[in-house]
Structures are given as structure tokens and as C-alpha cells.
Amino acid sequence: MEFQENDIILFQGDSITDWGRNYEDPSSLGVGYALMVAARLGLLYPEKKLTFINRGISGNRAADLQRRWDKDCLELKPTVVSIYIGINDTWRRFDSGEETTAAQFEASYRDIIERTLRATHAKLILVEPFVLPVPEDRKGWRQDLDPKIHVVRELAREYGALLVPLDGLFAAASVKADSVFWAPDGVHPSPAGHALITEAWLKAAGAIS
User: Fold this and answer.
1) What's the rounded Cα separation, in Å, for the pair 110 and 21?
2) N or C terminus of the chain: which is more exposed, having fewer CB within 10 Å?
3) Rounded to two decimals, what is the model's pTM?
4) pLDDT in the model for residue 41
5) Residues whose CB is less than 8 angstroms from the CB of residue 124 and which lie 6 or more positions away in sequence, other chains included
């Protein structure tokens, strides 16, 4: 993907995207991978005058994105839309018994993609969710999360979106250092985990090799 002059790059998702952003400041990027990606792209393409927007909200599921998509995506007129959602669609099943089936997840995700493509000419970057086996009970989440990861991969293929294949990348990284190094609770990345996401995102977008 080639970034164009004056591109507006929108990061959408849950707490992993949100990561400390100031909701009172529309330009706040938080202190996670969204900031890291923006910093690297600004360094790589200073002449392109890129704009970065973060609208991740902690705790969000795919259906939450659906409900706020007009205001927090379409009205912003982005030219690149990065979507990173799914772990809370699994988490809520285990912490409060609120299940989101893979079919429901796919329906919500497909809807926001369709609406984006109808209203904009934005390029799409889909970031698949991941989970690591710390603490031990996270292993039981795989039966719920794996079908959702496959949904993200299939949607990326179907719509010609770029895919950031995080689940496999975090599993591979956990061979080099314990899972807890990358995500202390198996879900929320450490600083090194955010750097891993950043590198994977930039590679998927073709900004680095």
C-alpha cells in the first residue's frame, strides 16, 4: 500500500488501540501501537503530511463499533481505516457470560466494512485479535477466539484488505521470551508487545520490509 499526501489514518478498536488516549483531545493517540505507528510513519514520510486519529474505546466489541461507526469513522472521512477488534467479544463470554457467536461477530464486522466502502474510498487494514496462555485459563478462550480470528482473515481476503496476523506473531514471539513478557495478562500488550504490533502493522502496510 502506498501512503498518499494528506492521508487520514484512523485507528479503531478496543483498549489495545485506546491505550491511554485522552477522550477530551481529538488528536490524542494514546501511548500504545497507534502512537508508535504514527511516529514511525511521520518519520518515514514527513513530506506526505499524514494525519492520525485514534478512536479506540476500552471494552468495545464489534457491535459497539457498529453503533458508533458513523460518528467515529465515516464522519472523519478517513482514507486508511485500521480495525482491531475481537478480544472483548471473547472475554465477555468468560467474565460475564455474554457470548458473541462467530456469526454475530462476522455480521457486525461485515457491516462496518460495507458501510466504510460505500461511504469512503478508504483502504482497510484488519488486525486480528490474539490471546496468550497467561494466566492458564486463557487456554480455554481459544475455542471461542479462534473462529473469530478466522472471520477476520476471511473478511480480509474477501474485501481485499490488508491483514495484520497478530495471533501467530505473538505465538512465535513467545518462543523467544515467555508469553508474560509480551502480554502480562495474555491480552493487553506490554511495551514490547505494542512494538510487535507496530512492526507487524507497518510490514502489512508496506512501510517497512
Assistant:
1) 27
2) C
3) 0.98
4) 98
5) 81, 83, 113, 116, 117, 156, 159, 161, 162
